[in-house]
Design brief:
There is one protein chain. Helix 15 packs parallel to helix 16. The chain contains 17 helices and 13 strands. Helix content is 35%, strand content 15%. The longest helix is centred in the N-terminal third of the chain and has 22 residues. The radius of gyration is 24 Å and the shape is elongated. It has 493 residues and is of the alpha/beta class. The chain folds into two domains: 263 residues, Rossmann fold, CATH 3.40.50.150; 194 residues, no CATH class. This is Methyltransferase. Belongs to the N(4)/N(6)-methyltransferase family. InterPro entries: DNA_methylase_N4/N6, RM_Methyltransferase, SAM-dependent_MTases_sf. Its EC number is 2.1.1.-. Keywords: Methyltransferase, Transferase.
Length: 493
């Protein structure tokens, strides 16, 4: 059964829609992830570069949105990623639970843990705190809600509050990995960090209580509950900054302190909030429930290795592994479209940034296998190694593409050296560069790269085995299409 698409099922994606992408909503907006690509460009390329039952490959799966879109459009799909979270999020999108089953599961979890979690946040007058304002290791305020008006009440911390916090000092996690972190100023990470640095011991105690209940479930329902936890975990952490001084640019500075939000990364601000874990979890669960009401809950079956995907003629293959190694297992001339957003040099260290989520999923990350440039020197992930890996992947891409197939690369890097694999494509294999078009986003993102010298948008680079009028006709009407090399605007590193 073909599941409904994110937007209207009767909509054909046009060149105009690529330039005017819609904002993510529903299931696709549920979980944060970096580099989510607008659906419009994905679907336009899928519809115009492939036919029904053709194989589409994404060797850097990321959030996995493309897997669902490819299936919705009747194509076979094969996705690969080294990141455990990427695999779990993709499988979540492909096999959503029924809304009623999900709601019953949340109700069951609440019945079993709500009173236990509330007990950890109780204050001296028996109210349940919603927020704790910290300045480094010092508790500054305790917030509760007025029972009648629901407005917040800000209280001075008491000895009772301090003793409550101290009662968790020796807590050790039970369902959660302690994590592997590296010295990387780019994402505010330190080598000696563990999961205990990202959350209070009290928060981890409560997260473990929720995980105890989640682990009683199985299959796609369990996965949806796990992803509800990871989706809400940022707001449960020590990384929720406090907003102060609103209006100071207009000489109307307020002394009011407001709750910020977790920005993807590992920045632990001095002035930050500790937020009631259950409230974070339930708020995110309510959003997912509403999204599930609008979705088909049928499961999309998949194979988890390349041999079975081809041997069994499967519609879907989702493989965890190193793309460079996995691509070698794919038969020559079997893929019609490779469309992928590979690591952009040192722009985003995906696996390092996903470590918090992978810890909560109790998954171990294979950092040595990631293809990336990392500012974490101890990882020894250099630009030269990255470029060699990218060249090898592009050689394999040329081999596995059909004669009339396409390779589409979403790419952005701030220096020409990071683009040097580009020049080797035509030299080392039969792929021909057709041109590129700029990638438009529906809104500015806090995870977009603002560094000096960075390009102002991603580009979609288009290759195939032969430049013909028919192939060019698919792309040359897209706004901004050019057969020039996009990195001409980039300065030397």
């Amino acid at each position: 059964m073909i599941q409904p698409t994110l937007f209207d099922t009767d909509e054909n994606y046009t060149v105009e829609s690529i330039s005017n992408p819609k904002t993510y909503k529903g299931i696709y907006a549920f979980h944060k992830y970096w580099g989510k690509k607008p659906i419009e460009s994905l679907d336009y390329c899928i519809e115009n570069c492939t036919n029904k039952n053709d194989i589409i490959l994404d060797p850097f799966l990321g959030s996995g949105l493309i897997s669902k879109e490819a299936h919705n459009l009747g194509r076979r799909f094969l996705g690969i990623d080294i990141n455990p979270f990427s695999i779990e999020h993709t499988l979540f999108l492909l096999s959503l639970p029924k809304a009623d089953d999900y709601k019953k599961a949340i109700t069951s979890i609440k019945k079993n843990v709500f009173s236990k979690i509330s007990e950890t946040y109780i204050i001296e007058n028996s109210d349940i705190a919603t927020h704790f304002l910290w300045n480094k290791d010092k508790l500054q305020e305790v917030w509760i809600k007025n029972n009648t008006s629901r407005k917040k009440i800000q209280l001075e911390p008491s000895e009772f509050d301090s003793n409550k916090i101290k009662s968790f000092e020796n807590y050790s996690v039970r369902n959660i990995q302690k994590g592997t972190f590296f010295e990387n100023a780019r994402i505010n990470s330190l080598e000696n960090m563990t999961i205990y640095d990202l959350f209070t011991k009290r928060a981890l105690y409560n997260i473990d209580l929720i995980l105890d209940e989640i682990n009683k479930f199985s299959g796609n329902l369990k996965r949806s509950l796990q992803l509800t936890l990871t989706a809400s975990s940022g707001q449960m952490s020590n990384m929720v900054f406090a907003i102060t001084g609103r209006g100071k640019t207009k000489n109307q500075q307020s002394e009011k302190i407001e709750v910020g939000s977790w920005v993807i990364g590992l920045w632990r601000p001095d002035l930050h909030f500790e937020i009631n874990v259950w409230n974070c979890f339930e708020n995110r669960a309510n959003k997912l429930y509403k999204a599930l009401l609008e979705q088909d809950s049928s499961q999309i079956l998949y194979k988890n290795n390349i041999f079975d995907f081809y041997e069994k003629q499967a519609d879907m293959g989702i493989v965890q592994g190193n793309s460079k190694n996995e691509l070698k297992k794919i038969p020559s001339g079997s893929v019609k479209l490779i469309i992928t957003d590979p690591p952009h040099s040192d722009r985003i260290p995906y696996l390092e940034l996903s470590e918090m989520w992978n810890c909560l999923l109790n998954k171990k990350s294979e950092f040595s296998e990631e293809i990336v440039v990392s500012n974490a020197k101890s990882r020894k992930k250099s630009k030269d190694e990255y470029l060699n890996d990218m060249r090898e992947i592009l050689n394999e891409a040329s081999r596995i593409l059909t004669n009339d197939g396409y390779l589409l690369l979403y790419f952005n890097a701030k220096d020409k050296n990071s683009w040097s694999f580009f020049d080797s494509i035509e030299k080392q294999n039969s792929l021909v560069y057709l041109g590129s078009f700029p990638m438009e986003y529906s809104a500015n993102s806090v995870v977009q790269d603002n560094r000096k010298g960075a390009m102002k948008s991603d580009y979609v680079l288009v290759f195939n085995h032969s430049r013909t009028e028919q192939t060019l006709g698919i792309f040359n009407k897209i706004d901004g299409w050019t057969n020039n090399k996009p990195f001409k605007e980039v300065k030397n590193a």
